[in-house]
Specification:
It is a single chain. By secondary structure, this protein is of the alpha+beta class. 43% of the residues lie in helices and 12% in strands. The strands form 3 sheets. The chain has a 5-stranded mixed sheet, covered by helices on one side. The radius of gyration is 41 Å and the shape is elongated.
């Protein structure tokens, strides 16, 4: 039967091949049949009968015979439809639409904190990391109306970053005040020439110093220079201040003992109920971005590392350098998982000690007298409370998702 059909096909092909040609005749190119241009017909919508037929075909797919494995594509489609129906039913129980349900699921993967925040010690305002210096400056400026001497001392210690220059400056200023206190009858100690080289190099170039002299009772005067015909500007102590020399001494002690005003890191304490979403968290860019001052510090450390690489170092020196390298990033987000599944979250400096974390957890407990232990990544007990977080692997760079278990 197969041979019969093959012979019929060959015969039809032979007849449609066109007229033959003798071998003695010159070859000629075959004629091409003109092709009629057929305009494409527009696609019509399926009729009602076609739609009923398609529905019947889908029904037959559902009633497939036993023992025949379903295709992977059919099962994938059914599985996806089933998931969407279940999600829609769950959303309807909550009174949410499918779009709101999707937004809710996306919100679970959002960063656990929106950034790193600080508390201004003067006003109590909570500001972002990039706004803390501006907030401090505004708070100190506002404090001039309360205590101008204290505000100027804050400016000197806070906004001049070179700590060595600040130390030399305040010691020189304290020497000026000490001379007045010890020798109030000497007029020469009550005058400071503004163009004096020592004054220019050590004091005048720093922020807040001129405000301090004006606040403690100095005023600017133009006086003749002894032995010369020219005049120069001086800081001259007012006469009424001589009756308050003890107060001048207190200002000197305050200048020497003061520290920079630092914004306090806001812990952003948060408590999460047991849920799969609580186990996932991300960190914002504030935890990784470095400020200009931090970048300069990193550059300085890298330069020192290159110099030390060419030197012979002991084991203790190498370990110390490794610890300094671990202080590369400033902040870490820690979560403490309690035995009942609740999670306590807080923001810390990466260089803070483990004892700070113990106090943080203890303050959150109802019975803060109960003993407890903290376990780090891998079940390692955090027994040495003097170690820093980055020394225990609890910094945002080495392990962003690390959690600490409480047992």
């Amino acid at each position: 039967m197969r041979k019969f059909f093959q012979e019929i096909k060959a015969d039809l092909k032979f007849k449609t091949a066109g007229p033959g040609q003798k071998l003695s005749e010159p070859s000629r190119a075959p004629r091409e049949k003109p092709k009629a241009e057929v305009a494409p017909k527009p696609r019509q919508a399926p009729t009602d009968e076609a739609q009923r037929a398609a529905a019947a075909a889908l029904a037959r797919l559902e009633l497939k015979p036993k023992g025949k494995a379903p295709s992977a594509s059919q099962e994938a489609i059914k599985s996806q439809v089933r998931k969407e129906l279940m999600a829609e039913a769950a959303a309807s129980e909550k009174g949410l639409s499918m779009e709101e349900k999707q937004q809710e699921e996306e919100g679970a993967a959002a960063p656990s904190v929106s950034g790193v925040y600080f508390i201004c010690p003067l006003t109590g305002a909570i500001v972002r990391k990039d706004q803390k210096e501006k907030q401090l400056r505004e708070a100190i400026q506002a404090y001039f109306s309360v205590d101008p001497v204290a505000a100027s001392i804050m400016e000197i210690h806070t906004f001049n970053k070179d700590r060595e220059k600040v130390r030399v400056c305040v010691e020189t200023m304290a020497k000026y005040l000490d001379n007045i206190y010890l020798h109030p009858e000497e007029e020469k100690y009550r005058k400071i020439k503004l163009q004096n080289k020592v004054f220019q190099e050590r004091i005048s170039c720093l922020e807040g110093t001129h405000k301090f002299f004006q606040a403690v009772g100095f005023e600017t005067k133009t006086l003749p220079v002894p032995g010369q015909e020219t005049t120069e500007e001086f800081y001259v102590l007012k006469e009424e201040v001589l009756s308050r020399l003890e107060e001048l001494k207190e200002r000197k002690e305050q200048l020497l003992s003061s520290e920079p005003v630092r914004a306090q890191l806001h812990r952003q304490l948060a408590l999460f109920q047991p849920s799969p979403a609580a186990a996932r968290f991300e960190l914002p860019h504030d935890f990784f971005n470095l400020t200009a001052e931090e970048l300069r510090r990193e550059q300085r450390l890298r330069t020192e590392a290159v110099e030390k690489a060419s030197m012979l170092r002991t084991r203790a020196m190498r370990e110390k350098d490794e610890q300094r390298e671990m202080r590369k990033y400033n902040y870490t987000l820690l979560r403490v998982r309690f035995p009942d599944g609740y999670i306590l979250q807080g923001t810390f400096y990466a260089r803070e000690s483990v004892s700070v974390l113990y106090n943080f957890v203890r303050e959150a407990l109802r019975d803060d007298w109960l003993p407890f232990e903290l376990l780090g990544p891998g079940g390692l007990k955090l027994t040495d409370e003097n170690l820093a977080f980055n020394e225990c692997g609890l910094d945002c760079w080495s392990d962003v998702s690390s959690q600490v278990a409480l047992v």
